[in-house]
Amino acid sequence: MISRLTWIRAGFFCPACLINSAEWEQTARTGTDSVNLLAISSSPRKGGNTDLLLDQLLRGVGDALGDHQCITGRRDHNSTVMIPADSPVSSGHFIEKIHLTGLNIKSCTHCDYCQNDGNCIIKDDMQQFYPKLLAADWLVLASPIYFMAHCAQAKLFIDRCQTFWSRKYILKQHLRTPEQPNRRGIFISVGATHGPKVFAGSKITMKWFFDALDMDYWENLLFEGFDEKGSIKQSPGILAQAYQLGGKIVENL
């Protein structure tokens, strides 16, 4: 199905061009019929299998919202923002997809600085994600399986979310608000090999990752046996499952 979303990407990357925290804070939900969704594509292969599934999910979300043409907010090579044109940003739908590849995200050093005030001392591109993760009602993380675990880009991102663990369990802060009674997470993953435990380790990681973010681990979309880039396009039934999951998100607002 052809998406009714307009996807516009600039041809260069500029960290300063990512949607800033103030814009995300403006998207705080004022009702129960809005989509405030952050989609993270961690695969180093743009256009790879997990990336394609994520795109299908987002198309499903957009189509389920209705016959909207979408405008695009500030964007760069790593970030695409989709906002229904007839819905004000301050009170309507807000959807952003970000590629981690190319961003400057350093590894967690276990310095425990975040236990002081819930903030990370490392100043890099990860800083721009923290307000977005707090504002999001839906978080979709897509990662391929490398050696029975997340890819390195995803694991860096997850580890740097230690700040939220500190806020929740050390500082006893509430990450959910009355305006955000439901915060939900979805994991999308594709592995090349077959076996009963291909996704076992990653699912455990996602369980505690979403817990640290005070999100319900709402759904998985997991497929094995796809290695070649884009090979999942030969399985329209699987793409349809991703698309339908996008519609399911809108049904569960």
Kindly give the count of domains: 1
Helix percent reads: 25-40%
Radius of gyration: 17 Å
Low-confidence stretches: 1-19, 27-31, 67-74, 83-91
Q: Return the CATH architecture.
A: 3-Layer(aba) Sandwich
The fraction of residues assigned to DSSP E strands is 15-25%
Number of strands: 8
Distance between the termini: 23 Å
- What is the count of helical runs? 8
CATH class: Alpha Beta
Give the SSE string. Answer: HEHEEEHHEEHHEHEH
| CATH fold-level name | Rossmann fold
Report on the biggest sheet: 8 strands, mixed
What overall form do the CA principal axes indicate?
globular
Average pLDDT level: 82
Determine the structural class based on helices, strands and strand pairing.
alpha/beta
Q: Any overview of this molecule?
A:
By secondary structure, this protein is of the alpha/beta class. The protein has one domain (41-251): Flavodoxin domain (Rossmann fold). The protein has helices at 21-25, 49-64, 114-117, 129-135, 152-159, 162-170, 200-212, 236-251, and strands at 36-41, 70-71, 79-84, 94-99, 138-146, 149-150, 184-191, 216-224. Strand 7, helix 7 and strand 8 form a beta-alpha-beta unit. Helix 2 packs across helix 8 (236-251). The longest helix has 16 residues, at 49-64. The chain is globular and about 50 Å long.
Mind sketching the topology for me?
Blueprint: H1 21-25, E1 36-41, H2 49-64, E2 70-71, E3 79-84, E4 94-99, H3 114-117, H4 129-135, E5 138-146, E6 149-150, H5 152-159, H6 162-170, E7 184-191, H7 200-212, E8 216-224, H8 236-251
Parallel strand pairs: 1-4, 1-5, 5-7, 7-8
Antiparallel strand pairs: 2-3, 3-4, 5-6
Helix pairs in contact: 2-8
